Amino acid sequence: MVMHRALFTWFILLIFFILLCLRLEARTHWNWFLIFLPMWIYDLILLIDALFNIFIRCKHENIRNLFKNKNILLVAVVLLKIAAQITLCLKLEYAALNLQLYHVLLPFWILLPILIVDVSVQ
């Protein structure tokens, strides 16, 4: 089962990188939201799996132990990643919005300390 997840992850990344290379080399003029679609499909699958595991655990545990669940952190990480991807797509696709770079990278700046703490605590 783990092998299938790893292969699926690599396949999604391969599709994303192929679309990204085609767009960056100016061979296509697709919308940036279309380029990031494989990543959003993968994030949606992760989000559904994490929410499903939270609901399963919620039935069997009390609310205090629920916040120790790693799936809640996964949901927060996936939502911040999706927000960062959306702001990046908005900056790249619509130059008339005049989004500043620190506005675009704000979800990443929130996400990085969370991940550093999570990695260092384990």
Automatic annotation (TrEMBL):
Signal sequence segment: none
Domain of life: Eukaryota
Pfam families, A to Z: Tmemb_185A
Transmembrane stretches, start-end: 33-52, 72-94, 100-121
Alphabetic keyword roster: Membrane, Transmembrane, Transmembrane helix
PANTHER family per the UniProt record, alphabetical: FAM11A, B PROTEIN, TRANSMEMBRANE PROTEIN 60
Descriptive protein name: Transmembrane protein 60
Organism of derivation: Aromia moschata
